[in-house]
Every structure is written in C-alpha cells, then in structure tokens.
Write a structure and sequence with these properties.
This protein is an alpha/beta fold. 32% of the residues lie in helices and 20% in strands.
C-alpha cells in the first residue's frame, strides 16, 4: 500500500461523515423535530391530530414543550426523543388539537360580575324577568342594590321594553338596575331613579337617552347609552375581594372552553387585581388589557409605563373599547340612513366627530393602538376618517388600529380598512341572535353589506375574532357556527342569512388564532403550533373542520394548556385517554 492510498483510506471516514451530516442538518433545520433532543421536554403530547395553523406544516401528530414554549412538532417517532424521566406525556388517542383560542374582545370583569348578579339571559317575557328577581330577593339585605343583566326584549311577546313599574312590582325597598344583554341599555326601578336624581325634568345626557312616559312625563325606567351612567355612578363600587372573585370566575369559564388569551376591556382596578393573581401564580389566562380611551393622555402614558407592554401573560395592550355609537339590537348604532323599521331614527353618536378625531390624533401621536366600538355604518365611516387623519398628522408606522364590531359598513368603506391597515375585530356569534330581526332593521339593500366577513377577507382586511363576552358566551363554538352557517342555533333561515358572507371553517379558525395574535402584535409568539411559539394548546372533542356544523354545539374543550401548564382538564374522564406517569425514553 503506497502513501497516497494509505492517506485516502484514513480520510474516507471523515469524508463520509461530512457528506452524511450535511443532509441531516438540513433536514433538522427544515423540519420541526430533531431526531435526538439534547434537552428533554417538560410536556409531550403524542398520537394527536394536530391542526397547527402553520402553513408550512399544517398537520402534525405530536408536540414537545419546555419552559412554556413549543420546542418541537412532528410525528410520534420524532417527538419521543424529547421524553425524559421527568417529562409528562399525554396520549391524545387521535383527538383533535389546535392553538388555544385567542378571544379578541372580552369584558372579563363584567362577565365575572354578571355571575354574581341576577342572570336574566334567556328570559322569554317580562313576567319571567320578574319571577327571577323575586327568586333572588332572599339573597339581598334590606336596601341593598339588586343588579342583573342579560335581558333581551326581542325575545318577548310584542318586544315591549321593561319599565320601572314592572320592577316596582317586585320590590320598592331595593334599588334595581338591570342591563340589557348588549350592555348599551338598562332599566331601573323607581328607587334607583330617585337615588340618581332622575326626574321628568332631567335632560338627556350627550350621547344618551332617558326614556319617559309619553302621557305622564316622568321617566319610564329605560336608559340608553350614556344615560345608564346616571344610575351606575350611584352603585357602590365592588371591593377588591369581589373583583378578585369575579375575575377568577370569568377566567375559569374561559379556560373551560379552550380560550388561552383574551384582549380585554375592564378597569384599571381590575388590571391591578390581575397583577396580583399573576404574582400568586393564579393567572391562567393571557390578558392584553385596554386602557380607557377617554382618560387624560398623561395619565394613560403613566398607566402604560406602570402596567408594562411586554409581559406575555399580562400586559397593557392599547386604548379601548371607546364607544363611538350604540348597538344594532337597541337601534342606537349610528347609521347614515334611518333604520328601516324606525323612520327618522339614525341611532346615537356618542361623541362629536371633531372631538373624537382630535383625541385620536393625540393618542396616536403618543404611540397608542386604539380599539373603537363602531357598529353602524356612520360610526364605522367616522372611525376610518379619524384613523386616516391620525396617519396624515403623525406619519406612517405599523399601527394596527382596530374597529370593534363593524357590523354595517358602507360599500365604499371596505377597501379603506386594508388601505389604512385597520383591523376588523368582529364577533360572528352576534349574528346568531341578530339574524332574527336584522332584515327588519336594515332593509334588503343594507343587509347585503352587514356582518360582511367574506367581503372583509376578499378585500385583504386583517380579521380578528372575539365574543364580546359576556354579551355572548365565551364558548368559541358560537362563533364557529355563525361563520359557516349564518343561521340561528335553531337553523333559521335554512342556508343562512345573506349566505354570500359565509366564510370557511379554516378562515374562521385562523381569525381566532393568527388573526387575533396579529391584532395584538403577537403573531410571532402566538396563534400557531410550531417551535418557538408559546405553548398554548387546546384539545377538542371533535374536529370543527370535519364534523357537521350541528355537532359544533356538542363540541367541548377536553384539555386547555397555557404556557405548557394544564389549566383545564376533562381528559381524565374522557374514554380512551391514557397518560404515561413515568415515561421512559427509547
């Protein structure tokens, strides 16, 4: 053997190793899982049907989690290498899993408080409302305020609004204040009106209306929009203990339905309670909290600095929900043309456009994202005008300003959303009820441009989905049903109301995950199951993309994971569930 041959033989193993290691490295970089994990996982989910919402790899079987983040996604054989002696391993048994739902519009404090008050949701008559109040009376001490919410006169015979006399028939020794289901109207009894100083001579506040008996003149008990504040300011503020209890109830409700993140409109006092829960390790829901748009700008900046904007579990998100108009159900949404069933009535604009625009420009200059409630087409148009004025005054940047609801939009305004980069933060579930009377309110022409989710997507508008909890239940299935059917839960009208605006289940799920993450500037850490993302995952009892729509109402969250931490678990009682308590590596 000559020297050249000997040298080649010595170099051959190194050459072969170099050649073989190149493709292995390439496969490891392009795939989601490494064949041998140097670091073991805290949690591994195996044998699942994972919908990742990652276009590069939309389906997977297993996922590994460490330190609250996803470290690998792939097949069972790929992910088993991440299993160590301390890894918790859950066998999903082929069940469907996806990124946790991110609800883009909630009122956690209000939702929790409603659970401590008289629940009037689903009442079918004024008589039933009175009956529920009478049943609740023993829980209250003499003179204590009785609060309730959830009534909807469109469910009652004749659609008659309740009056103070209806409530007085239950009790005159307690002040009573009952919010309508949409939170934009309320009825008060005579004692509550007296404590608030509301009489026949009390003028309507700006952006509100006091209902008055057309024959006798005194207030009839109904209060709309800003007028509700005339009574609310006299209701004793909840104690910190009450706020805590309410928030914990709302958070548990969200977790039980697979919701892992919310973008929330509560108060600063509630935010401080959430901070305390985080310090105690009891916050099991990611919260991006909105500050009150109408507070002085210096105070808003100070609150933003104090609250922080970078904590992935709890942060200050932006300003909202500023109410530019009312609601469709109460016919207080600001419209360009009058309501079809109420000639001459164009709803209520809660702030003069000039004032709102000035405030929006100033807050935009300070770097705030804004979430503006605009339901009627006039309010949506004015919100877009204000955002355009802010961009012109302050120059270009990645703003992601939001319009909440955007239920009725002028045909010429759809394209402006995309042009201005404004996100449509919408709640398809509202249509589950509104479809019963939407045509009556709007007429045939305007109906074509109402709840126009498909048009928004075709016009390349960024689209985020929420529930407006507690206006609607936080259960995502109501939104998913509405997206693909546009029918009431009872199946009317067959084929859907304005069916051209249906969207696919995939588009709806993306709006609930990547869309909602985008609107809160978190698309790089939320909304997909892929390495580097926060480990926020939900396991459902069925695959919404494959089951008949009617089955959505029976679909539930079996397992909810926030940052690798299991915060809701029905898997223990689900048939076929297996967990490896002391996993062994292969």
């Amino acid at each position: 053997m000559n020297d050249l041959t000997r040298t080649l033989l010595l170099l051959l193993p190194l050459t072969l190793a170099a050649v073989s290691s190149g493709p292995r490295r390439a496969r490891r970089a392009s795939g989601s899982a490494a064949p041998a994990a140097a670091t073991k996982a805290d949690l591994v989910l195996l044998d699942g049907d994972l919908y990742t919402v990652d276009r590069a790899r939309p389906q997977a079987q297993a996922v590994a989690v460490r330190d609250g983040r996803i470290v690998a996604v792939g097949t069972d054989s790929e992910i088993r290498s991440y299993i160590g002696p301390k890894t918790r391993v859950i066998q999903l048994g082929g069940r469907f899993a996806m990124p946790g739902f991110n609800d883009a519009h909630t009122h956690l404090a209000g939702a929790g408080a409603a659970k401590l008050e008289v629940d009037l949701r689903g009442t079918r008559s004024i008589g039933e409302l009175e009956s529920r109040l009478r049943s609740a009376l023993p829980r209250y001490q003499a003179g204590e305020w009785i609060l309730g919410s959830g009534w909807d006169q469109t469910l009652w015979p004749g659609e008659r609004y309740p009056t103070r006399q209806d409530l007085d028939a239950v009790t005159r020794s307690h002040p009573i204040f009952l919010m309508r289901v949409d939170g934009h109207g309320a009825v008060a009894n005579s004692l509550a009106l007296k404590l608030a100083g509301i009489t026949a001579r009390t003028p309507d506040p700006v952006g509100g209306h006091i209902g008055k008996d057309p024959k006798t003149g005194p207030p009839d008990g109904m209060l709309e929009e800003e007028a509700t504040g005339l009574v609310r300011r006299h209701i004793p503020a909840p104690t910190p203990a009450m706020r805590r209890r309410a928030l914990l109830l709302a958070i548990a409700d969200a977790n039980s339905h697979g919701v892992t993140s919310v973008q929330d409109s509560s108060s600063w006092q509630d935010f401080l309670v959430l901070k305390q829960l985080e310090r105690e390790g009891k916050l099991t829901l990611r919260v991006s909290e909105w500050l009150d748009f109408e507070l002085p700008l210096k105070q808003l900046v100070a609150m933003r600095n104090e609250g922080g904007t970078s904590d992935p579990l709890l942060k200050v998100g932006g300003l909202g929900e500023f109410l530019l108009d009312g609601t469709f159900g109460s016919e207080t949404g600001a419209m360009v043309q009058p309501y079809s069933d109420k000639p001459g009535d164009r709803g209520i604009l809660r702030m003069a456009p000039e004032k709102f625009t000035r405030m929006a420009i100033a807050r935009d200059r300070a770097g705030f994202q804004m979430a503006v409630h605009a339901i009627g087409d006039r309010a949506v148009h004015l919100a877009l005008d204000a955002y355009a004025a802010a961009e012109k005054a302050n120059g270009p940047r990645d703003r992601r300003q939001r319009i909440e609801h955007a239920q009725i939009v002028l045909p010429g305004d759809f394209g402006r959303f995309a042009e201005l980069g404004v996100v449509a933060s919408m709640q398809p579930c509202h249509l589950n009820d509104d479809v019963r009377w939407a045509s009556q309110r709007l007429g045939p022409e305007r109906s074509k441009d109402a709840y126009a989710w498909a048009t928004m997507l075709r016009d390349h508008v960024h689209f985020a989905i929420g529930t407006d909890f507690p206006v609607e239940p936080i259960d995502p299935m109501g939104n998913l049903w509405a997206c693909v059917t546009r029918e009431t839960p009872q199946g009317w009208p067959q084929g859907g109301w304005e069916p051209q605006e249906k969207i696919s289940m995939d588009d709806c799920l993306r709006g609930y995950t990547t869309g909602s993450a985008y609107v809160e500037f978190d698309e790089k850490i939320k909304g997909q199951i892929k390495p580097g993302m926060l480990a926020d995952i939900v396991v459902l009892s069925g695959d919404p993309r494959k089951i008949p729509p009617r089955e959505l109402w029976r679909t539930r969250a079996l397992l909810t994971i926030v940052g690798g931490r299991i915060v809701h678990d029905e898997m223990s009682s689900a048939p076929g569930k297996r967990e490896i308590a002391r996993p062994q590596t292969r």
